[in-house]
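R.M. (postdoc): so does anyone remember the format we settled on? I'll just put the structure tokens first.
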């Protein structure tokens, strides 16, 4: 990659991977320091720091307090939905975590036990995560408000001893009672947790069930002031299980270990995100997703940053200026959010009026991840904010960035549509379906040569063979990302689609992501999705769904015609892009991922299941109705 700072860092890792990670491990606290950095004979592909002993909570909290930084702000809670806000220093967070850990311990939770956390975006949720880590217990955060059946499958899969929950979640215009969902989930589950620790929120009362349920606030008040020692754990012991969204049947639990996880995240905060200890970092996500685990809770606290816990939405709580007010109020240095959030903001405030009204001198960088960041959204954000906008790519399975622009090392030139270059720890290659390397610029299967770096999953929970079958078997010696794309002549990686989003049009393998880029470039399109639908002649044909900007003055039919022409002009007739339809909104998961696969099943009249993670089920019926209007059956669930 040349002689620049990034090239030197990447080469240093490539030439001596163990030496690279040994040096990074020195920056953290270990009860027993690692002598062996990597053992290829352990686990599914080897294990990092197998002989080391540590505790993640100690490294997030006690280490900073012991170093004299206890008065620094650790967690900021901002809830425009409820109108509440709170600030917690590192010392205060440590005090709260000690109290919650004492409660959990009193309920019989010990090292290695599993605890499900089913809570909204409130401080107590982060305290519960850190309290589990303090005791060496394994937490599994389930997105608050998840359906009872889905929660039950997770209780059964991890055999949870305890569930920590709240009476409700608060969303724009509605209260979502959690306690009835929790009670029903436990009724359905074969495995019954011994206790439920439940926080009553002001917005919704609840009923406790005798002997099983414990009031969170009462229990914590009784144990406040107690000190709970951090339990030493092996670096290879699990810190958490995170069940991936959209699973059907038996859920797929991604396991994260303690040692490799904290080493990788600590490295990423300064080198990828470019933030120093003491600075405010905001990942506008939810703790139910991997971004929340890595960059609301663990990454910033390991690094000694101030992290923002935000209970709200990018628009509607109360308007499209809410992000900018939070950044201004807390002097946020870097914002990390999903492209879908910026598309929502742009749809409501396409001329950036709120941005002009709210000065944000502290904000240096915007990071986007979670879905492909279309060039038009990036260009809009660059123009409005006047700062670098960094697309980067990673997965729940990896836990941190596979490819990005390492702001703390060197800001590389941006190529729109690319998350830039591969990070140290990852040897990314592109293979054809037979497992052979393809030439630069050729679309293929993106894989990572084993071993995966520290911080990436070692396996699925109690399912080593399932992990091998799903991720390691198809391309021996490599981890299959299930993403398709290419690497250009400069070493820049382009993620074009999930491999199941590559459509075959009359024998041509085409990326729906490339078509979406062109659709999104139309000035009246706020966001879009392209799927392949069954075609008796061509095999598949692309079909576009367009959501228009609020400010557009053109008719839907006019925009549809212009977008079809744009795709044919940009990609060519080979794309066979002839159909686009304007819809009010796109179906998404709560984390912002567009449910393209479900849309495709509806269009093709295939059986489909309502995704457990869907944000608003009514949207799928709207999509089905729109498809019926265009002559595609659009079957109901």
């Amino acid at each position: 990659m040349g002689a620049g700072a990034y090239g030197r860092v990447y080469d240093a890792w490539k030439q001596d991977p163990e030496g690279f990670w040994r040096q990074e491990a020195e920056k953290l606290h270990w009860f027993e320091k690692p002598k062996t950095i990597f053992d290829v004979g352990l686990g599914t592909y080897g294990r990092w720091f197998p002989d080391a002993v540590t505790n993640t909570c100690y490294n997030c909290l006690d280490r900073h307090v012991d170093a004299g930084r206890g008065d620094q702000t650790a967690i900021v809670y901002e809830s425009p939905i409820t109108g509440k806000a709170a600030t917690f220093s590192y010392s205060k967070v440590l005090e709260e975590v000690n109290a919650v850990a004492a409660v959990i311990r009193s309920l019989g939770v010990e090292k290695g036990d599993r605890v499900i956390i089913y809570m909204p975006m409130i401080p107590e949720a982060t305290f519960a995560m850190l309290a589990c880590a303090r005791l060496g217990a394994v937490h599994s955060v389930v997105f608050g408000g998840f359906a009872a059946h889905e929660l039950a499958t997770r209780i059964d899969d991890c055999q949870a001893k305890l569930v920590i929950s709240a009476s409700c979640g608060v969303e724009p215009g509605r209260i979502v009672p959690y306690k009835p969902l929790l009670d029903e989930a436990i009724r359905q589950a074969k495995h019954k947790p011994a206790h439920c620790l439940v926080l009553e929120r002001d917005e919704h009362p609840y009923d406790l069930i005798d002997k099983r349920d414990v009031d969170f606030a009462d229990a914590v008040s009784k144990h406040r002031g107690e000190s709970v020692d951090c339990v030493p754990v092996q670096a290879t012991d699990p810190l958490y299980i995170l069940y991936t969204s959209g699973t059907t049947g038996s859920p797929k639990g991604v396991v994260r270990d303690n040692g490799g996880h904290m080493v990788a995240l600590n490295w990423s905060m300064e080198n990828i995100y470019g933030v120093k200890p003491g600075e405010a970092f905001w990942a506008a996500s939810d703790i139910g997703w991997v971004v929340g685990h890595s960059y609301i809770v663990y990454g910033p606290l390991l690094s000694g940053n101030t992290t923002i816990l935000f209970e709200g939405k990018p628009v509607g709580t109360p308007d499209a200026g809410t992000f900018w007010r939070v950044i201004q109020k807390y002097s946020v240095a870097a914002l990390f959010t999903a492209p879908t959030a910026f598309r929502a903001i742009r749809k409501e405030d396409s001329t950036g009026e709120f941005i002009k009204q709210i000065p944000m001198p502290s904000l240096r960088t915007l990071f986007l991840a979670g879905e492909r960041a279309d060039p038009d959204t990036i260009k809009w954000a660059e123009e409005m904010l006047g700062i670098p906008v960094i697309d980067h790519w990673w997965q729940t399975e990896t836990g941190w960035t596979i490819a990005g622009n390492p702001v703390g090392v060197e800001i590389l030139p941006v190529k729109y549509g690319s998350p830039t270059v591969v990070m140290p720890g990852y040897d990314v290659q592109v293979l054809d379906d037979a497992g052979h390397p393809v030439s630069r610029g050729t679309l293929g299967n993106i894989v990572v040569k084993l071993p995966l770096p520290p911080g990436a999953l070692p396996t699925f929970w109690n399912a080593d063979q399932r992990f091998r079958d799903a991720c390691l078997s198809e391309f021996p010696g490599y981890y299959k990302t299930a993403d398709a794309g290419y690497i250009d002549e400069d070493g820049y990686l382009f993620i074009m689609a999930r491999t199941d989003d590559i459509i075959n049009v009359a024998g041509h393998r085409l990326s729906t992501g490339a078509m979406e880029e062109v659709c999104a470039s139309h000035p009246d399109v706020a966001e879009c999705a392209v799927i392949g639908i069954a075609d008796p002649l061509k095999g598949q044909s692309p079909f576009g769904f367009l959501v228009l900007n609020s400010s557009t003055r053109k008719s839907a039919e006019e925009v549809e015609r212009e977008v079809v022409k744009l795709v044919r002009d940009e990609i060519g007739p080979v794309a066979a892009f002839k159909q686009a339809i304007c819809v009010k909104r796109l179906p998404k998961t709560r984390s912002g991922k567009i449910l393209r696969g479900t849309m495709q099943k509806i269009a093709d009249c295939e059986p489909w299941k309502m995704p457990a993670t869907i944000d608003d089920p009514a949207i799928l019926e709207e999509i089905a109705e729109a498809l019926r209007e265009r002559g595609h059956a659009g079957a109901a669930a």
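R.M.: ...and that's the designed sequence above, right after the tokens. Also worth knowing: The domain at 506-629 is CATH 3.30.300.30 (GMP Synthetase; Chain A, domain 3). The chain has three domains: 46-312, 317-396, 506-629.
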